[in-house]
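sanity check this record:

:::
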Amino acid sequence: MKRTIENEWLRVTADNHGAEIVSIFDKRRQRECVWNADGSWWKRHTPVLFPIVGSIWHNTMRAEGSEYHMTQHGFARDMDFDCICENAARLEFSLKSSDETKAKYPYDFELRIAHTLDGSTVTTSWTVVNTGSRTLHFQIGGHPAFMIPDVSEDYDTTGTLRLTGSGSYELTEIGAEGCVKAEPIQLNTNEIAITRDTFKKNALIFESPCPQTVELLDRSGNNVLTFHSPSPSLGLWAPSKDIHAPFVCIEPWWGRTDREGYEGEFKDREYMNHIAAGEEMRGEWAVRIGIND
């Protein structure tokens, strides 16, 4: 079921399925800001990634003395959540562990996803609650896809991603089975032109340091949106074809895909989060559409 909140600047629609935002409509510019999930490019809008980000080696995890199997980005994005709050400015959804989730992931949890509208800013927040009696190990992240305005094959670039950060980053490169290679790649710029080849080697994964603010600029240098998150890792991605992609994903991650060949315990993966019984953890990301309200 789709639910909508709006104000004079934006209309935001989210779906109980996956608790993902399926539309952010900019009323001032009369344009859609979120990818429409056309499967010829990519079949999703802004999925929530839980309880893993990326892939686990051979799709196999070892936890609590057993092996479990889970595909890329986990199961939450493909499950129906309950709506637990709906008002003029906020939608909140809840997913609880069940026999279905425990067949893939042996922990008791509640995952709450909230979308809040304030002026021209949409904030997505997550809360993970350990409802079990043992430590909960998990990863979580977002995968929002934002439309790039006026994409045209007449130009070499469709826009620019401007990072707020040091100007010197170590990127992790995707290798076999969607897992990352051992050696980092150096990036020495705060501006990434979006071309047909920008994502030819898959996502750009930032870890050290991780920029917390990313601006999407159109090809004329105008601000389309500003994205912010305190996440410890960040992915930038779009499908790579011989033509320009109509969108780009800015992905905040409290987690990351396995390294190639990792066969250790699930709890010992890199970028894992751990919650004691009865405790909870929270995080968020936000996107401001345009530069002014």
